[in-house]
Write a structure and sequence with these properties.
The longest helix has about 30 residues. The chain has about 475 residues and is an all-alpha fold. The chain is about 80% helix and about 0% strand.
């Protein structure tokens, strides 16, 4: 248990340091550039981010030659893709920006593919801190280069240059810290057996597919609006639920032979994540309009879309926690089926609502598909464990109920005092969070004491 706590704490510090820097970089770039330039730059980033994870190995290989095979395979894919994007740039005449975007994509894609092998090695050797450190340093340098290029007044090219610097620095650091030597010229078809392309493909399509298609139906400014609101709305889901699920997967696998303890730990996991997420999602929801305007200025008039995405992200953050049951028990088929259902339901809802309501309709489509898929994950998991969905944890429902009441109360205070300034917004958030914690304590002090002991046990074990 001590080793699990120690590893978890190291991963939390490393992951959140990097993700905080990534968040800052996105906010800084959104503040500096107009939505259209932001869209052109981040569209290239989206394409790289959509393809890159498909080739990451998800299990440890005892033979280091596997990573050499992976390197050679990814190098071939990278060269083919780079040549393809470069060739396409000479025929792309529908948009004056498209040729430059494709040439930038060609170089960025090749560099990212060369990074796959070392990142896979670090992941499977449980050396995530090296990935986090490389990403943290690269992200900090990206912010600096983006600011410098901004004053050169070259528009979205500043974003692409800074992203290229990020990839190069990250590539250098990942290879520099490698403890094994890999060969660029060894290949074996065995590598295809080590790639979990089906699940990863649908996850990538679900996450980035809609963003990829947005410019074809709307424009780059609309893409920028949707990218930014999705990123902010799903930030907690990606960095709390998904991250902790991956980190604690082996812990839960250790309790497969003891269903009672497995169920108890699952319930505690749901309770604690819900308690942490609520003050940072539902409670400030009514207050975020002021913060949003302060950070981004008047160019980004997209608060209504952000509101929907925050709700969708909160739903996924809580109701997809039981997905760890399917992962621990190696039930991959239900996961893939639900992801496929999620993909097609998102496409259907987007086609129907996007046509009539525009981007707001697309955000509603994301919310509906997220709600349905999250409920399916929860129901499938609870069915395997034979747990009562409603009675699984009263603290879990107390947390949601109190958070909603707190949000409504803050809304009344905001209107009553006409709180529009950043200082007033900060005070209201503090009042709301304090009220939320005190309410939890009054209703069930044992839960709050148990959560506090859990946090201090992690800190204690880490020391």
């Amino acid at each position: 248990m001590a080793e699990i706590y120690k590893d978890l704490w190291k991963s939390v510090i490393g992951r959140y340091s990097w993700k905080l820097m990534e968040l800052i970089s996105v906010l800084v770039i959104a503040r500096l550039f107009v939505p259209a330039d932001f869209g052109y730059g981040f569209y290239v980033i989206t394409i790289v981010s959509m393809i890159y994870p498909l080739f990451i190995l998800n299990h440890k290989s005892k033979d280091t030659k596997t990573y050499s095979y992976l390197l050679s395979f990814c190098l071939i894919i990278g060269i083919i893709g780079a040549v393809g994007f470069l060739a396409a740039s000479y025929f792309a005449i529908s948009d004056i920006h498209l040729p430059y975007m494709l040439r930038s994509l060609s170089l960025c894609f090749l560099i990212s593919m060369i990074s796959v092998a070392p990142e896979s090695y670090y992941r499977n050797e449980k050396q995530h801190e090296k990935i986090y450190r490389a990403s943290l340093i690269s992200q900090a340098i990206m912010i600096g280069t983006a600011i410098i290029f901004f004053f050169m007044d070259i528009g979205y090219q500043s974003i692409l240059f800074s992203y290229l610097v990020f990839l190069l620095v990250r590539l250098y650091l990942l290879w520099r810290w490698m403890k094994i030597k890999l060969s660029f010229f060894s290949f074996d078809k065995e590598i295809f057996n080590n790639l979990n392309l089906a699940e990863t493909f649908f996850s990538a399509i679900l996450r980035y597919g809609m963003l990829f298609l947005i410019p074809f139906f709307f424009n780059m400014e609309s893409f920028a609006y949707l990218y930014l609101t999705m990123y902010l709305g799903f930030f907690l889901y990606e960095n709390i639920t998904v991250f902790l699920t991956d980190e604690l997967l082996q812990f839960f696998k250790g309790y497969l032979e003891n269903p009672e303890l497995f169920n108890l730990n699952l319930v505690r996991f749901i309770e604690y994540v819900s308690f942490v997420i609520m003050p940072f999602s539902i409670i400030p929801l009514l207050l975020s309009k002021n913060i949003f305007r302060f950070i981004f200025g008047d160019a980004w008039q997209i608060y209504d879309i952000l509101f929907v995405f925050v709700i969708a992200g909160t739903v996924k953050s809580i109701f997809e926690i039981p997905n760890i049951v399917l992962m621990a028990k190696d039930k991959l088929k239900p996961i893939v089926r639900i992801r496929i259902f999620d993909t097609f339901s998102l496409a259907l809802f987007s086609a129907i609502l996007g046509k009539s309501l525009g981007l707001f309709g697309v955000s509603i489509a994301v919310f509906l598909s997220s709600l349905l898929s999250s409920m399916l994950f929860a129901l499938a998991s609870f069915r395997i464990l034979k747990l009562n969905v409603i009675g699984v944890s009263k603290e879990y429902f107390y947390t949601i109920f109190i958070a909603v009441l707190t949000m409504l109360f803050l809304g009344l205070l905001k209107e009553w005092f006409n709180a529009e300034s950043i200082v007033a917004t900060g005070i209201l958030w503090f009042v709301g969070t304090s009220l939320f914690v005190v309410s939890i304590y009054l209703i069930n002090s044992d839960f709050l004491k148990r959560f506090t002991r859990f946090v201090f046990s992690i800190l204690g074990e880490n020391k």
